Design the sequence.
C-alpha cells in the first residue's frame, strides 16, 4: 500500500485541530496549508508540517499539493455575501479537484453541511450544495475518488458554538434568541475526526456521501439553556418573533468584531439541521456509539428539566 501523505486545508481551525490529532495518532504524515501562521495548535504534532499560503491562489495550491496522496478540505465560512460563499464553497473545491486531477491525486475528502440543497433558503446551504455538485462533476469526468461528509453543528469543549452562548449568558441578564425553535443534531468533533480518518483509510467510502449527527435532537433554545447550565450562568431565554429576529440579525451583521448572527444564518435555520435517514452515517464510519453532548461537557441530562 502506498504511504499516505495528506494535505489538509483548514487544518488549524477547530475541526482541523482534531483531525490532525487523530491522523497523528495513526502515524499519517500531513501538511497543513493555512493562511494564518504559525498554526500553533498543530505545528508541534510530530507528523504535521505547516505551510503558510493562500489556498485560493491556484499556484500556491498546486505547489502545496505536490507530493501528496490525498487531500482533506475543511475550509468553510458561515457569514458573508453571495460572492464570499461562492468563492469558498464552490470555486475553491473546483480548483482543488482540478489540480488534484492534474497531479494524479485521486483521493479527496470534502466537508459539506447537513441540509445542503440547491433549493435551500440560505446562501450558505445553496453554495454548499453547488460545491458538492461541482465535485461530483469533476470526479466523474476526471476519475477522482471523492467522499462527502455532511455534519450537523459540531461541538466540543473548545468549540465556538456552546462556548459562545455560555459567554453571552455570563455577561447578559437574559437571552433574546432568534430561531429559538430551530432543530439541531449536534455531533462531537472527535467523532467527526474519527469519521474523516476512517474515510481516508477505508477505500469503500469513496464516491459516497455521509451524514454526521449525534445522539440527540435539540432546539436552539435547549442548546442555549444547556450552555447556561454548563457555565453556571443560566439565564432566561426569550424566543423572538420572526420580524424581531430579522431585525436582530440585521443589526448583528453590522456590529464591529466577528459576526455572531446574520440574516443568512436565520434563513438556514428554517431547515431542521437533523439527519435525513436517507444516507449512511457515523455507524458506517466505525463510530458505533457517538458521544453525547451531556457526556462531553459533564452536564446531567436531568438538569435540563429543572
Sequence:
Amino acid at each position: 500500500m502506498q504511504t499516505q501523505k495528506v494535505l489538509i486545508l483548514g487544518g488549524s481551525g477547530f475541526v482541523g485541530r482534531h483531525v490532525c490529532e487523530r491522523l497523528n495518532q495513526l502515524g499519517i504524515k500531513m501538511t497543513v496549508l493555512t493562511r494564518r501562521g504559525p498554526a500553533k495548535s498543530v505545528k508541534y504534532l510530530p507528523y504535521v508540517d505547516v505551510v503558510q499560503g493562500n489556498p485560493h491562489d491556484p499556484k500556491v495550491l498546486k505547489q502545496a499539493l505536490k507530493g501528496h496522496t490525498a487531500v482533506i478540505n475543511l475550509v468553510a465560512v458561515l457569514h458573508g455575501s453571495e460572492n464570499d460563499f461562492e468563492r469558498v464553497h464552490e470555486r475553491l473545491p473546483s480548483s482543488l479537484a482540478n489540480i488534484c486531477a492534474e497531479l494524479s491525486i485521486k483521493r479527496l475528502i470534502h466537508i459539506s453541511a447537513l441540509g445542503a440543497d440547491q433549493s435551500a433558503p440560505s446562501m450558505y446551504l445553496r453554495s454548499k450544495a453547488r460545491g458538492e455538485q461541482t465535485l461530483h462533476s469533476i470526479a466523474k469526468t476526471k476519475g477522482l475518488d471523492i467522499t462527502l461528509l455532511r455534519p450537523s453543528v459540531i461541538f466540543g469543549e473548545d468549540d465556538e458554538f456552546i462556548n459562545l452562548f455560555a459567554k453571552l449568558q455570563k455577561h447578559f441578564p437574559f437571552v433574546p434568541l432568534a430561531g429559538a425553535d430551530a432543530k439541531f443534531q449536534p455531533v462531537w468533533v472527535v467523532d467527526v475526526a474519527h469519521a474523516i480518518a476512517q474515510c481516508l483509510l477505508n477505500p469503500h467510502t469513496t464516491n459516497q456521501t455521509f451524514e454526521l449527527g449525534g445522539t440527540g435532537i435539540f432546539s436552539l433554545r435547549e442548546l442555549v439553556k444547556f450552555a447556561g447550565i454548563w457555565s453556571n450562568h443560566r439565564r432566561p431565554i426569550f424566543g423572538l418573533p420572526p420580524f424581531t429576529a430579522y431585525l436582530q440579525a440585521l443589526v448583528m451583521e453590522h456590529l464591529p468584531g466577528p459576526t455572531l448572527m446574520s440574516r443568512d444564518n436565520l434563513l438556514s435555520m428554517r431547515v431542521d439541521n437533523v439527519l435525513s435517514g436517507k444516507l449512511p452515517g457515523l455507524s458506517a464510519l466505525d463510530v458505533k456509539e457517538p458521544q453525547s453532548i451531556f457526556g462531553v461537557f459533564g452536564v446531567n441530562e436531568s438538569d435540563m428539566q429543572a
Remarks:
- The domain at 5-154+187-212 is CATH 3.40.50.720 (Rossmann fold).
- The two ends are 55 Å apart (CA to CA).
- DSSP finds eleven helices and 13 strands in the chain.
